[in-house]
Amino acid sequence: MASSFWDSKTPIAIAHRGGNAAGDEKENTLDAFQAAADLGYEYIETDVILAASGELVLVHGSENWLHASISRGITRYTLQKMTLDQMSFTLKPGGGQVPTLEEVLKAFPKIRFILDLKTDEAAAPLGKLVKRLKAEDRVCLTGFDFRRIAMFEAACGKGRVSTCLTIGRGVRFRNMNMFMLKSGRLKDVEAIFLHHSLISPPMVGLVHRRGFKAVVWTANSRIAINNAIRSGADGIISDRVELLKELIEKKTKQK
Q1: Exposed (0-12), middle (13-18) or buried (19+): which is 69, by Cβ within 10 Å?
Q2: Which of 70, 139, 173, 192 has the maximal Cβ count within 10 Å?
Q3: CATH of the domain at 203
Q4: CB neighbours (10 Å) of residue 74?
């Protein structure tokens, strides 16, 4: 398993979709990534799906029609029927273009990217792109679907890229990822991404005892960020990149 990806001071500050330093409306854009880099961020989380024209693009989209109707968004299924140009015309993120993963990896060679793999269709092309660009050491793959991670590894090579598993909010009928973690059946990943509502010292302790890094998403309040720091999280994902940086630096100075 690749381990160098997480070799950094903890807790690691991670800019969620680039963060809000360039403006809330510019998430998942080159402007957001540049603003995070200018603040000194070395880790950025973003979302990957596949355009109909073949490019891997950094778009979140809605999981299903219900989510789309509530958030006034567009489902990933619909987005993946669009070409890159059609996506950019429809979404206009921050008034600009939808970025491709390839251009972002080339534009920010010193940034480590955590890629949330959103669809099955993107798995194999993503594995091939990471391999072609020789970006294995600065890419980490995560998602809710363990099967999808295996699809990526089939294209890229098992163990060549740091892989993680995301665990969502605890309020659900069946949380198989949490069950796998608690039962000790989870393996072949390097980190567990936990929703901030699940974070406590015992939970982070469990993750560490299982041999994984504990990464918190998406902590946007002062309370949530401080709770993640106190609980011993190895990484914290936030939209509020200036606040996250401030609180981590404050904690570091107290040591």
Answers
A1: exposed
A2: 192
A3: 3.20.20.190
A4: 18
Q: Of 214, 165, 217, nearest to 188 (Cα)?
A: 165
Q: Which residues contact 51 (CB under 8 A, 6 or more apart)?
A: 57, 79, 80, 82, 83, 84, 87
- Residue 56's SS3 state is strand
Domain that residue 88 falls in: 4-254
Q: How many domains does the chain have?
A: 1
The region, left, alpha or beta by phi > 0 then psi within -120 to 50, assigned to residue 17 is left
Listed in sequence order, the residues at least 6 apart from 246 whose beta carbon sits closer than 8 Å to its beta carbon are none
- For 30-51, letters b (16+ CB in 10 Å) and e give bbbbbbbbeeebbbbbbbbbbb
The residue to which tokens 């190895």 are assigned = 234
Q: Tell me the C-alpha distance between 225 and 176, whole Å.
A: 26
Q: Which amino acid is at 132?
A: R
Q: What is the pLDDT of residues 143-202, one digit of tens each?
A: 999 899 999 999 999 999 999 999 987 555 568 899 999 999 999 999 999 999 999 999
Instruction: Kindly report the pTM of this predicted structure.
Output: 0.94
* Residues making up the chain, counted from first to last: 255
